[in-house]
Design brief:
It is a single chain. With 441 residues, this protein is an all-alpha fold. The protein has a domain at 242-410. It contains 19 helices and no strands. The chain has helices at residues 6-11, 19-45, 52-63, 84-90, 98-123, 132-142, 144-152, 156-171, 175-188, 196-201, 207-222, 229-241, 251-258, 262-287, 291-309, 322-325, 338-348, 359-394, 411-415. The longest helix is centred in the last third of the chain and has 36 residues, at 359-394. The N and C termini lie far apart (61 Å). Pfam families: GT87 (PF09594). This is DUF2029 domain-containing protein. Keywords: Cell membrane, Membrane, Transferase, Transmembrane, Transmembrane helix. It is found in: Cell membrane.
């Protein structure tokens, strides 16, 4: 019998035998090619918006002993806004020439995002062999937040990695190291400080030692090295505390752009703020023992509220919500409903909704979708948790938690309806339990 040579047989691609294998074979090439296109084509080509240019200029000025905080805030160009502690951390960027430094920074952020992808799989008990692995990688690199982080070339990928490290270390009760992770974040972006509320609610007090100590130490080291440290206080900080009406998806930003009255702007912020407080209370009261769900969901609520309700929220900040969005794989997730993913589409989609024929309507659709997406996400969390609470109170089972009763069943029992009990087959006919069987002679 003729047998094909071994080498040609090895060239034959494997054929999937299960649906899971087929999905893996479909999604992995799509995910890998998307990553390569985003990193080495789209990001290297760049865009008119360039977040890296002011960062590189500030780093170069710092290394050469020149003033750092000299931006003209009357323009709409990207500005350098990092505090002295952040300036000290990013200063090594200027060791290389601008082009090579930018390429290295793109690759660094891409590596950080891929590391986050792997850590999230591990955190939620999945492996790179699961179908979720290529699906998650593809979804991340299709999102607006990852694409624009790479194309604009900012530090958000590294910030996300530090955030995930903080959450994982917090769950493992490695408090001092968790504080180091969040401390490094605060040293660059103080608007991430609300995450410390999770450590406070979990009474992990040692986190605050390093969370406060790291940025203080970096600031103390940077202060005498910067030519104009007080310019950050007098010139940059007032701008950070203002709400601008461009490139700002926070409520106050769009309200200023569309000219809404202050009472309406404050009314929306206060109403959503109350919903956030109620959601946080329900999470703390009934879910703090479910550590993974509590930490990741609370982080999402806190950060979404920060982006939406404070003075500045930019679309690509949504990257910090990846740990929260991953909770959809948990059975008690608050994201297992279609309104939640309508909200996610609003702030994660890379689509543009501008209309050439109806420009005013198109601008409204495109500018407001992120704001509406963040707001809808907070409303969904409140409604899901509130509905669970009201149902549990009505059924008198608040003492045992607010999860629906079906969530307490085993996954197999919850997904498969019980089969009717049957007696052994008699004369070729199966009969229900308790039904008499006629005996024929």
């Amino acid at each position: 019998m003729y047998r094909a040579p071994v080498f040609p047989r090895q060239l034959e691609p494997r054929t999937a035998r299960t649906t899971a294998e087929a999905l893996n074979y479909i999604l992995w090439p799509l995910a890998i090619m998307t990553v390569l296109q985003r990193v080495f084509i789209k990001a290297v080509n760049g865009f008119i918006t360039d977040d890296f240019k002011p960062v590189y200029a500030a780093s170069l000025a710092f290394l050469n002993g020149q003033p750092v905080y000299t931006d003209n805030f009357d323009s709409v160009d990207p500005h350098y806004l990092y505090p002295p502690s952040g300036t000290l951390m990013i200063a090594p960027l200027a060791i290389l020439d601008p082009e090579k430094s930018r390429w290295c920074f793109i690759v660094l952020n891409a590596i950080a995002i891929i590391a986050v992808w792997y850590l999230l799989l591990r955190l939620f008990d999945h492996t790179v062999r699961s179908v979720l692995a290529p699906a998650l990688l593809l979804a991340m690199f299709l999102s607006e937040t990852v694409v624009n982080t790479l194309v604009f070339t900012n530090i958000n990928g590294c910030i996300l990695l530090a955030e995930v490290a903080f959450l994982m270390l917090l769950l493992k009760r490695r408090d001092l190291w968790a504080g180091v992770a969040i401390g490094l974040i605060i040293a660059v972006k103080p608007n991430m400080a609300p995450l410390l509320l999770i450590a406070l609610l979990r009474r992990q007090w040692q986190v605050f030692i390093t969370a406060i100590g790291v940025p203080v130490a970096l600031t103390a080291a940077a202060w005498p090295l910067i030519k104009d440290p007080m310019s950050f206080v007098r010139h940059t900080m007032p701008y950070l505390l203002e709400s601008r009406d461009y490139f700002n998806s926070a409520i106050v930003g769009n309200a200023a752009y569309y000219g809404l009255p202050p009472w309406l702007t404050w009314g929306m912020r206060l109403v959503l703020g109350v919903l956030v407080l109620i959601s946080l209370w329900l999470l703390y009261r009934y879910y703090r023992e479910d550590e993974l769900f509590f930490v990741c969901t609370t982080s999402g609520v806190l950060l979404t509220a920060t982006f939406l309700l404070t003075s500045l929220g930019q679309a690509y900040y949504s990257m910090m919500l990846f740990p929260f969005l991953m909770t959809v794989v948990l059975r008690n997730s608050v994201l297992r409903n279609w309104p939640a993913w309508l909200a996610v589409f609003g702030f994660m989609s890379y689509d543009k909704w501008l209309l050439d024929r109806w420009q005013s309507a198109g601008r409204a659709l495109d500018y407001l979708r992120i704001t509406f997406g963040w707001a809808l996400l907070l409303i969904v969390v409140f409604c899901v948790l509130g509905d669970r609470y009201l149902n549990a109170r009505r059924e008198g089972r608040l003492a045992s938690g607010i999860d629906p009763l079906w969530l307490r069943e085993t996954p197999a029992a919850a997904e498969e309806p019980p089969a009717p009990a049957l007696t052994p087959v008699h004369n070729g006919v199966a009969t229900s339990a308790g039904e008499p069987i006629s005996v024929e002679s």
